Request: fold
Amino acid sequence: MKKTDKNKKIGWGVVGSTSWSEHTFSPAIEKARGAELRAVLASTRNKAAAFCQRHGIENGYSKLEEFVADTSIDAVWIGGPTHMHKDHAVAALKAGKHVLCEKPMAITPSECRAMMRAAKLARRKLNVAYNTRHSPKIQQLQKDWRAGRYGNPVHGRAHYYYPYPAKPGGWHSREKQVGSWVFNDIGTHLIDQLRWFLGDAKKVMAAHKSSPSWGYGTPDHAVAMISFKNGSVGTLSASTGMAPGRSRLEFYADNGFVIIDNGMMGTEGSITTGLKGGKEKTVKLPFSPTYKLQVEAFGRHIMCHAPYPLNPEDGLENVKLISQARGW
Reply:
């Protein structure tokens, strides 16, 4: 993107015209400061036209090469199926667009590396959309934790059951396309939070996966244990079908603890903290528009090289752990 004045809006294109691209990603762009939704890539011309009508934009495409050639687009938010992330990202980067890719970054580590090479060659920004990292309250909590306020990390426990209201079908039911459904849908968020608080991981020590909710050949429930380089351990439990639809993050160190009840994805919840020998304290965690804040942070990253709360390597390391946990 050419150097411009600070008041210029970043033109965004979204990949995907339904589901999360429709009800979450596009509205986040429309509400964000310094951003403007300008184009969409849909699976059909009719879907592209319908999306354009709903969002009041003109540029709707069903062909990738036409979408990335659109000169009104400065940045692309990739929200399509996971097995298409690499091809969409590489094409956009080669066309000179910056790329914000939905989680997980791709299906395999080799696909992640291909995306990173393309970004380096194109001299464009590439990053991954783990929106919980943009919650201001959790950001401050993580800084305190990593600064050693609670002591040396011992154990992190991450839990999130996000029950789909109905069978999604399609690519979600195909293991190689979804990349092991529950790991790539919910587990990837939990892995990111464990890595954010506990640091670099060593390996997945154990993993269990099953399909109690939807009966697909790809799992909808998973439990895993991860060892970290600082000697701590992380455990996660994730589901795309089981109640109650709440998240819980717990981090324990040798001098204190942090518990984030609900709060992932920007939802309202609470934060409980405590130090050894002291009284625990619980405060409200208000709703945070993390998707909008993510767009704004990526915009600052593009325009003035401001820090972004993760990097492509975080996306790669996440997919490495998912690959270990699913066994391929």
Notes: The chain has a mean pLDDT of 96. The domain at 136-287 is CATH 3.30.360.10 (Dihydrodipicolinate Reductase; domain 2).
